[in-house]
Amino acid sequence: MGLEEKLPEGIITTQLETLVNWSRENSTWPLLFGLACCAIEMIATGSSRHDISRYGSELFRASPRQADLMIVSGRVSNKMAPVIKRLYDQMSEPKWVIAMGICASAGGPFNNYAIVQGVDKIIPVDVYVPGCPPRPEGLLYAMDKLRAKQGKDNFRTYANLNASPAPATPEDIESLETLRQPQRA
Amino acid sequence: MLNVSPRQRPYETLPGLTPLGIPAVAPLPAGESDDTQRLVERFGDAILAAGMHHGQQVVYVKPEQLVALAEFAKSDPKLQYEAIVDVSSVDRSELPADGARFHAVYQLRSYARKQHLMVVCPADEGGDPEVPSLAGVYKGAIWPEREVWDLMGVRFAGHPDHRRIMMPESWPNHPLQKQVPVGGEEVPFTLTWSDPEFESFGKQVMAAESLPPVVPPGMSRENMIINMGPHHPSTHGVLRLVVELDGETVVNVDPDLGYLHSGFEKTGENKRYKDFVYYTDRMDYLSAMSNNLGYCVTVEKLLGIDIPERAERLRVIMAELQRVASHLFWLSTHALDVSGTGMALLMYATRERERILDLFEMACGARLTVGYMRIGGVSRDIPPAFLGHLEEFLRAMPIRISEYESMLTHGPLWEERLRGIGKLTRDEVINMGLTGPMLRGSGVDWDLRRDAPYSGYEKYDFKVPVFTEGDSYARYLVRMEEMRQSLRIIRQAIDNLPDGPYRVEDRKVTPPPRAELDVSMEALIHHFKLMTEGFQVPPGMYYHGIESSKGELGFFVYSDGSAKPYRLHVRGPSFNNLYAVSKMSKGAMLSDIVTNIGSIDIVLGEVDR
Question: How close B232 gets to chain A, by Cα (Å)?
Answer without folding.
Answer: 7
